[in-house]
Design goal:
Shape: globular
Strand content: 25-35%
CATH topology of one domain: T-fold
Number of helices: 7
Structural class: alpha+beta
CATH superfamily of one domain: ApbE-like superfamily
Radius of gyration: 19 Å
CATH class of one domain: Mainly Alpha
Strand order of the largest sheet: 1-2-6-7-10-15-16-17
Number of strands: 17
Length: 303
Amino acid sequence: MLRLEQSAEAMGSAFSIVLYGYGREKLEEAAQAAFEEVRQLDDMLSNYKPDSEWSKVNREAAEHPVRVSAELFHLLAACQEYSRESEGAFDISVGPLMKVWGFYKGTGHLPHRAEILAAMQVVGYRHVHLDAADQTVSFDRQGVELDPGGIGKGYAVDRMVDVLKRKGITIALVSGSGSSIYGLGAPPGSPRGWRIRIRDPRNAHASVAEVFLQNESMSTSGNYEKFFRAEGHVYSHIMDPRTGWPAPGMLSVSVITPRTIDSEAWAKPFFINGRRWAARHNPHAYRAFFCEDRTEHPCAWLQ
């Protein structure tokens, strides 16, 4: 059995694929088809490309309802459901906050409180209205801006896995930036599945747990991914859209689900709301591993 490993840049992230199978040409064709899929998704989901469907929504939806493709409408409807189930901790309208905190195209900076208050006036999933009959998206005020950063990688990984399955691949590991991972089947010599370590949020060279993924995914949100220090505090890019401030108290959360879009989406609310909230509000009984910002026994599985 052959092993093929390839990577490519798309959607502002590094995607990687590990494949096992017979016939190098078949494996290479499948890998290239998967990468082509994520490049096409970038044309729909990018908020950096002015001609993308996502950018058109951000540009025009406050002026008039914007008709979108069935695929994007379905994705936005799923995001609205994540927001409702997470009590607003997941929110794709967080774009204005990401900008004032400097996380849109940079590593962040401490904004003035007036800037945060202004951004909060246009943040909130309830400002986004979906019309299923006409398949349109509209905003109820100027300045609302959707950010695909909390959902795009997970959705792309799932789509790549679908392409690989159609190409006859049964054993694969697909990763978006190393933070959203799907393990298809089980690699040779590892019947339990793909062995994945959960890194120590305080030490990139150490791990605090390991999991085996077999036809399931894991996504991790960590304060070490993008952050800055100011006035004696560490501020990460994981924003609580209800307060306008980066979420405190957590170092990292890893969530395991059947689909990567779900693991990526739920990693944020679990990180923002914390382990106690997750223990009470886990409607799908997802497995999750929490590392909290405290000294004694900071890391543990959700019970």
